Amino acid sequence: MTSSSDTTCDTNGASVSFRLAKREDAALIHQMVADLANYLDEAGKHTASVADYEIHGFGDRPRFEAIIAEVAGDAVGMCLFFDSFSTWAGKPGLYVQDLYVSPKARGLKLGRLLLEQVAQHGLAKGYAYVRLSVDANNVNAQGFYEACGLEWSDTERLYVARGDAFAVLAGN
Q: Exposed/middle/buried for 36, CB within 10 Å: 0-12, 13-18, 19+?
């Protein structure tokens, strides 16, 4: 998928279109991530602003891309992702940070279709894989990703340093 191309398909009687996000979608992305945080009972952790998405997704050096799913012109889902690199395989890939489908569009298989769009986008760029992490308590998402063919890795653990811990790690 290039920035100038859209993809359309029919699923469960609905015509769904997919497109790469543009700068004017920053508020939409912000809202969908906020909705996802609310769904996960983690609303307090979503501190990003619309400006953060504008700057980091659509500025001089974009840090992420997103694919938007629309039904009848209404945005109903998105997948936000960024480049990754496997030092062991020596190949680039994509890391899915967030996948969201609005409650009104659930049952249309949009989650699977969004992942498929991301994989096709990566494949077109010569990439070799998709990675993601899922909240430990989100059992539904874990089952969904496994049904999509992703494998749970029991050989890795995700570690994060943010806020004060990040400053300490940086020697401040």
A: buried
Q: Which domain holds residue 37?
A: 6-132
pTM of the model: 0.90
**pLDDT band of 136, cuts 50, 70, 90:** confident
List pLDDT tens digits, range 91-126: 999 999 999 999 999 989 999 999 999 999 999 999
pLDDT at 2 over 60: no
Tokens of 109: 């298989």
> What does the alpha-carbon distance between residue 22 and residue 152 come to, in Å, rounded to a whole number?
32
Neighbours of 68 (CB within 10 A): 23
Residue type, 46: H
As given in the structure block, the two tokens for residue 16 are 């769904």
Task: Look at residue 57 and tell me if it is in a domain.
Answer: yes
- The pair of three-digit structure tokens given for residue 73, joined into one six-digit string: 């012109």
Cα(144)–Cα(112) distance, rounded to whole angstroms?
Answer: 8
| 3-state secondary structure (DSSP) of residue 6 | strand
Question: Is 1 inside a domain boundary?
Answer: no
- DSSP annotation of 25 reads G
On whether the CB atoms of residues 21 and 78 are closer than 8 A, the answer is yes
The answer on 114 and 58 residing in a single domain is yes
Q: Is residue 91 part of a domain?
A: yes
Q: What is the CATH number of the domain that holds 65?
A: 3.40.630.30
